[in-house]
Design a protein that fits this description.
Blueprint (H helix, E strand, L loop, with lengths): L1 H20 L13 H22 L1 H12 L3 H20 L3 H27 L1 H28 L14 H11 L15 H20 L3 H17 L3 H28 L8 H21 L24 H8 L2 H22 L5 H16 L9 H18 L4 H4 L5 H27 L1 H11 L22
Helix pairs in contact: 1-2, 1-6, 2-3, 2-5, 2-17, 3-5, 3-17, 4-5, 4-13, 5-6, 5-15, 5-17, 6-8, 7-14, 7-15, 8-10, 9-14, 11-12, 12-13, 14-15
């Protein structure tokens, strides 16, 4: 049964990333939904499928509750308090129905993360390598499609084909650039051809980082790299960093070649505009914090007042503080530092390449979330769950197999009840939205057009504003 649940999870994750890979060709389907909305629907299908597997497997329920129960008591209490604050903020908000979309989604993402951690904890080597392989094949294929599009454009957005905004690709790269060379460490006797192909794919993925002009991504990579160098040492770290350096230089070479051929602009351009916009968005978030410091204005309610610039503040900490309240933000920050310090203490004295890569990924993703919508966009949300789930599963000390015979009906039924309650409520809010997405976008475009042009600012959906003036 355990093998079946793991296989189902792998299939669901593979299908999600396959959709991302094929996103550039979405327009050919003729389906009216925007690709961002399809990514959101696919994310919800992935989570729902994983939770259905959890509900149908008593063994997986035992293991899930054991993984959660093996967290330190303060950690469990912090998680419960965080979501409790989210529920309180939701109930006190102006539009509780919309607020629950985000509160419920965050709760479901938490369940997904622990499902991944549970499977990894009990089958570390096999499922870990398969999850990394799925991610690698998806981004390798997309990298080829991206560079073909640079030379022979078939997408309106040259620097993020199949995505509504280039920054969404940068958010995915923040999590995955540190992971892309990991397949080189999975086999000591890899065929030379395979090694060259992995180097090629990794170099192409790094090339995109130079193409997409994401200043926040560059800063995140540099800062997290410096922190990594301060925290780590040893033979494995030197080996990993040397390979990362090689694929980075290979990516720079690809970028220079392709940019010369396609006559595209250089990296790190137009920095002033994005900085000014973020300053305005952050100032608005601070205003919400001052007005509602305890419970915030409500989850997703930054998108309740149209500002013409963004439906979220492009800063994870400010977003939680403004919408969920300062206590929730402090709890989130405390949980992050507690988890990171615990990870460092347990594994960094003799870190393996995958532990090094995951550390770099977590640091880079967390830092980039302070200047972007990393915790908002569906692709980066799923990748975040994958990274955190891998880290938690690799280093949780559980002994489920030795205790399966012991009755655990109470925690199991609490888990089942919580999952069903959230799913039912989440679905009741979601379906009316899904049925009218295209119509609502059309109405918004018509009513907010300026000189024939309208910009959609994504949040939960592509048209992210929940207010309907």
């Amino acid at each position: 049964m355990l093998r079946d649940t793991g296989s189902r999870l792998l299939i669901l994750i593979a299908l999600f990333f396959a959709l991302f890979t094929l996103s550039p060709f979405w327009v050919l389907t003729g389906i009216d939904y925007s690709i961002f909305n399809i990514h959101r629907i696919a994310e919800i299908c992935l989570i729902s499928g994983a939770l259905l597997t959890l509900l149908l497997s008593r063994r997986l329920q035992h293991q899930w509750t054991d993984v959660f129960g093996s967290l330190p008591e303060l950690g469990r209490l912090g998680i419960i308090l965080f979501f409790g604050m989210g529920v309180a903020s939701t109930l006190s908000s102006k539009l509780p129905r919309y607020a629950f979309l985000e509160t419920g989604l965050f709760a479901l993402l938490f369940f997904l993360t622990l499902i991944i951690a549970t499977e990894v904890n009990h089958r570390k080597e096999s499922i870990t390598s398969k999850l990394i392989a799925i991610l690698f094949f998806a981004i390798a294929t997309y990298s080829v499609i991206f560079h073909v599009n640079v030379l022979f454009p078939f997408s309106n957005n040259t620097f993020s084909p199949g995505l509504s905004n280039v920054r969404q690709l940068a958010q995915l790269q923040a999590w995955t650039l540190p992971l892309v060379s990991l397949p080189l460490f999975f086999g000591s006797k890899l065929n030379t051809v395979y090694r060259y192909l992995i180097h090629l794919a990794a170099g192409l993925w790094w090339s995109i980082a130079f193409f997409n002009s994401a200043k926040g991504l560059a800063i995140s990579l540099i800062v997290s790299g410096l922190l990594l160098a301060l925290l780590l040492s040893g033979k494995q770290f030197r080996l990993w960093i040397s390979i990362q350096g090689k694929v980075l230089l290979l990516g720079l070479g690809f970028y220079l070649c392709f940019s010369l051929i396609s006559n595209e602009s250089s990296y790190l351009t137009h920095i002033g505009d994005s900085v000014n916009v973020r300053a305005i968005l952050w100032h608005e978030a601070f205003a919400y914090i001052i007005d509602s410091p305890i419970l915030g204005v409500g989850p997703i309610h930054y998108a309740n007042h149209y500002n013409g610039l963004g439906a979220h503040p492009h800063n994870s900490l400010l977003q939680i503080a403004a919408e969920w309240g300062l206590p929730a933000a402090l709890i989130m920050l405390s949980l992050f530092f507690w988890g990171f310090v615990s990870w460092i203490r347990k594994c960094m004295t003799s870190a393996t390449p995958i532990e090094i890569a995951l550390t770099y990924s977590l640091l880079c993703g967390a830092i980039y979330s302070l200047v972007s919508g990393t915790i908002v966009m569906p692709i980066s949300q799923v990748t975040m769950c994958l990274v955190v789930g891998l880290m938690l599963g690799m280093h949780q000390k559980c002994s489920v197999n030795a205790r399966l015979s012991q009755p655990k009906n109470k925690p199991q039924w609490l888990l089942v009840a919580a999952v069903l309650l959230i799913l039912i409520r989440f679905t009741s809010v979601l379906f009316p939205e899904v049925l009218h997405l295209s119509r609502d976008e059309f109405v918004w475009i018509v009513t907010h057009s300026e000189n024939g042009h309208t910009t959609l600012h994504p949040r939960f959906w592509q048209q992210g504003w929940i207010s309907r003036p």
